[in-house]
Specification:
This protein has 254 residues and is of the alpha/beta class. It is 31% helix and 26% strand. It has 7 helices and 12 strands. The structure holds nicotinamide-adenine-dinucleotide.
């Protein structure tokens, strides 16, 4: 039985993870951590502090869906205690992660960091990689609910990173002098412009628009419910014992 602790247990994703884990026969929730909640979540014992929760409940795995400001501290706590962690939180600080990677080298420990657990989003990135080899112009539009704490989304940044590695025909985007209102043409990531829409009617959606003279290829993915992320989260929990160090992306374990 895999003992799972959910960090961010009272949040939108944390609650989905608790429900999904509870439906599995090979894993169980041992505790939740969330400083914002003062009552049980679906009968799960809640702590305000990850350190104390790990000591009290001895989980095999921590699953983190918290906040960009909290996640690095949580990874550090898990690394110090050698409890492996599934990280779904986005907006991570790359420089801090690099430092932790060095520290993790000699430990019997793993962290899997996944900007998007939906299989459709993984395929969207794979298809974007393929298309990037044939098109010279591309922009990304990502749409999320208006409570999202970071922009652009982790998925958009990961997609841009992949495209930047394969889109060779175009110079980096630098000219924004045509913008009458600053930001109108989106943020610039290497050779890719990213536009972030934040509205209450969305969950998580993205369009990658490849373009050349006279044609556009649009690759679109829609997560219309947070349940779309759960098969990926459960897979990561099950695969974690076989991993070591930092692993980036669901595609590494599919
Ligand atoms: N990887 C993916 O597939 C995926 C999918 C959806 C959302 N996300 C990301 O997951 C994160 C959470 O999203 P959400 O919609 O559930 O947000 P949310 O705001 O609904 O929930 C976050 C919860 O974390 C709690 N929290 C804050 N600091 C904490 C700490 N130090 N320890 C424990 N809990 C803490 C908050 O009180 C809150 O209840 C965001 O970064 C979001 O972008 C990732």
């Amino acid at each position: 039985m895999i003992r799972v602790l959910v960090s961010g247990a009272a949040g939108k994703m944390g609650r989905e993870v608790i429900q999904a884990v509870n439906q599995q026969s090979d894993m169980q929730i041992v505790a939740g951590v969330d400083p914002a909640a003062d009552t049980d979540i679906q009968g799960v014992e809640l702590f305000v502090n990850l350190d104390a929760a790990i000591d009290a409940t001895k989980p095999d795995v921590v699953v983190d869906f918290t906040h960009p400001n909290a996640v690095i501290e949580n990874i550090k706590t898990c690394l110090a205690k050698e409890i492996s962690i599934v990280v779904g939180t986005t907006g991570l600080n790359e420089a801090e992660l690099k430092l932790l990677e060095v520290e993790a080298k000699n430990k019997d420990w793993a962290a899997i960091i996944v900007p998007n657990f939906a299989i459709g989003a993984v395929l969207m990135m794979r298809f974007a990689k393929e298309a990037a080899q044939y098109f010279s112009d591309v922009e990304i539009i990502e749409y999320h609910h208006n409570e999202k704490k970071d922009a652009p989304s982790g998925t958009a940044m990961k997609t841009a990173e992949i495209i930047n590695q394969h889109l060779t025909a175009r110079e980096p985007v630098v000219d924004d002098s045509f913008e009458i209102i600053k930001g109108a043409a989106g943020a610039v990531s290497g050779k890719v412009r990213i536009h972030s829409v934040r509205l209450p009617g969305y969950v998580a959606h993205q369009e990658v628009i490849f373009s050349s003279l006279g044609q556009n290829l649009i690759i679109r993915h829609d997560s219309t419910h947070r349940k779309s992320f759960m098969p990926g989260v459960l897979l990561a929990i099950r695969k974690l014992p076989a991993l070591k160090g930092f692993v980036y992306g669901l595609e590494q374990i599919l």
